[in-house]
Every structure is written in structure tokens, then in C-alpha cells.
Amino acid sequence: MVVAGFGVQPIGVQAAGSGDLTVDQVRSEFITDGFNAGTPSTWWGASAPISFRVTDPNSDRVIMVLVYPDSLAAASARDHAQGQEASDQGRLVPGYGLSTWVRNVAIVESTGADLARMYQTALDQDNEVAIGEPGLAVSMPSQPTYAVDADLVGVVDNVTANL
């Protein structure tokens, strides 16, 4: 589980060197393309990403965008995430599908329905523990296995093309 905290750099001030993308660049492109982009969240650690949630007003798609400080931090996170995904040991972001990477940006996709199902199952598991009835075993639904839609990858690719 990832816990929000105070990061080392203010939101949007992330340095972009050697072609790395900033949170502001990526978030602005999603908004320009008609998506709803939430407020960025900064996580603990110098190599931690700044993330924001994107929703599609025309469908149930929910996207999480993670912008790493630089390509080196992204490469390390990508190697770890892709290893977990290949062995089905987890996802970059639980409840979301397989990760797609463009430079220092990771994108994962889910649906509101899938996220609601995962949330409800987690609540059911917590309630099972709270009331102490082991016969009510609730198993977590499997992680989504779908990839990020091409139009969403195109949004980030468009930022790259405009540099």
C-alpha cells in the first residue's frame, strides 16, 4: 500500500532533464484532450512519483498517471513493476491493469466498476475479521489484466512529440 506524504519537491516543480516529462506537461495534455485530471499527489522519497487520477467523461475508464522524477527512477520502477506483472504477483497500482511506460511516465488503467468491486471486497474482508466469522471467507477479485488503451498512451506520446 502506498501512503501519501510530503515529498521533497512541490507539485509541478519536478525537474525535466534530458527529455523527461513534468507533471504539469502530462496533466495539461490530458485536460486539453478532454479528460478530467485530478490534483497531483506527491509521495515520500526522492525517487517516488507524483501521481494524479484521470477519468474519461465518456466512459467508465479510470487512469492513474505516475510521473517519476527522472528516467533513471522510472527505469527502476518499471523493471520492478514489469517483473511483478509478468509473474502475476501484483500490479504497479493495485486494482489497475498492466502498466505502460513512456519516458519517465507510467500509466495504468481500470474502470470505476472494477475499483468499486475491489474496494467492496476489501471492506468485506475487513468486516469478516472484525466480526470473527472465518466461514465467510471473502477472496479478493483477480487483478485486471488489460493494457492501457492506445488513445491514452497517445496523450503522453503527444507531450513527447511536442518537446
Summarize the structure.
This protein is α+β, with helices and mostly antiparallel strands and 163 residues long. It contains 4 helices and 6 strands; from the N terminus they run αββββαββαα.
Radius of gyration: 17 Å
Largest sheet: 6 strands, antiparallel
Any guess at the CATH architecture of the domain at 23-111 and 146-161? 2-Layer Sandwich
**H/E series, N to C?**
HEEEEHEEHH
Describe this structure in words.
This protein has 163 residues and is α+β, with helices and mostly antiparallel strands. It has a domain at 23-111 and 146-161: Phosphorylase Kinase, domain 1, CATH 3.30.200. Helix content is 36%, strand content 17%. It has helices at residues 23-32, 71-86, 112-131, 150-161, and strands at 36-37, 41-42, 50-55, 61-67, 100-102, 105-111. Strands 1, 2, 3, 4, 5 and 6 form a six-stranded antiparallel beta sheet that branches. A hairpin with a 7-residue loop joins β2 and β3 (50-55). α1 crosses α4 (150-161). The relative contact order is 0.16. Residues 1-17 have low confidence and may be disordered.
